Amino acid sequence: MYDVCIVGAGLIGSAAARHVAKILNESTYKSKVILIGPKEPKDFHSQDIFGAHYDEGRTVTCVLPDATHATLSKRSVDRYKELEKISGINFYNEVGHLQAVLPSDSRVNMLSSALNNASQIGVHAEKLKHAQIKDMFPFLNLPSQMDVVYSKHGNGHVSPRKLVQAQQEAANQLGCTVIHDVVERVYKTTQPDGTFCHAIMTSSGNTLYSKKVLLATGAFTPFKELLPEHLQPQIELRSQIVVKVEIDDADACKLKSMPSLYVKAFDTVVGNIADFNAYILPPILYPDGKFYLKIGHGKKT
After folding, report:
1. Is residue 82 classed as helix, strand or coil in its secondary structure?
2. Which end of the chain is more exposed for a tag (fewer CB within 10 A), N or C?
3. 3-class SS at 210?
């Protein structure tokens, strides 16, 4: 019998397992915590569960227009070094973050808010002039009319794949059991003494029991029997395009000072602000031994 079972071993579930194990370890009795989730498959088409952390690049910034978001981001970044030290796994690259938007864009006001929030939480961020951009990042070709904000410390990118590994290693050190399996069903059952607990059935045929269950299964929650029928999340299917541009070692070297970027796109053909934005990550070495620039888009405005 486990005290807490966390279902879903991704970015949220792995972090939750570490914190639950730490909190329960500080209690007066020896607790049992378990984290269950599948391993990353070699063939992505071989299973219906796809983790958001099956990648090497996610932007990190504390320069944000929402004060709460900025504060929480700063607190997370401040803990990265400690987690890297505990786990022995490096996942954070402090390469800085640059945001570029058009003056006519409403996000310019949001940049002002972001600069103010950064100042409040002790993160240095500054507006750059076009000449400064050319001097610092000669490989960037941004329209001169763009407003640009740059911050070095507390900004950059993480490897979500390695971050999950670090969280799980730290959780394991705190006594959390980690099982690589898929949970097919969770349901309430009665123990011999009449008290309730939860039964957790896995695809490998095992059934585990826990007093409490924390679901960290995200959009894949409806794929399995994890909740009662009257308690189903409202899921909307959306598609997003992410491009990974392969570059050679020489170009990766030329771009070694490149920060992570957020750019409000400008349609130079039509001459209007486009209805999308994009994030661009600097060259990252992927497990296949190649460098890629990752380019993704945000929601429509």
Report:
1. helix
2. N
3. strand
* AA identity, residue 45: H
Q: What is d(CA 293, CA 273) in angstroms, rounded to the nearest whole number?
A: 24
Long-range contacts of 265-269 (CB under 8 A, 24+ apart): 266/102, 266/143, 266/146
Find out whether 277 and 298 touch, Cβ atoms under 8 Å. Answer: yes
Token pair of 172 as six digits = 């394991």
* Confidence band, pLDDT 50/70/90 cuts, at residue 300: low
Six-digit token string for 61? 């910034």
pLDDT at res. 270: 45
Residue 278: is it exposed, middle or buried by C-beta count within 10 angstroms (0-12/13-18/19+)? Answer: middle
Dihedral over Cα of 181, 177, 82, 86: its sign: negative
Q: What does R_g of the chain's alpha carbons equal in angstroms? A: 22
Tokens of residue 248, six digits? 């050679």
Mean pLDDT value across residues 102-128: 84
CB 8 within 8 A of CB 14: no
Amino acid at 13: G
Cβ atoms of 124 and 85 within 8 Å: the answer is: no
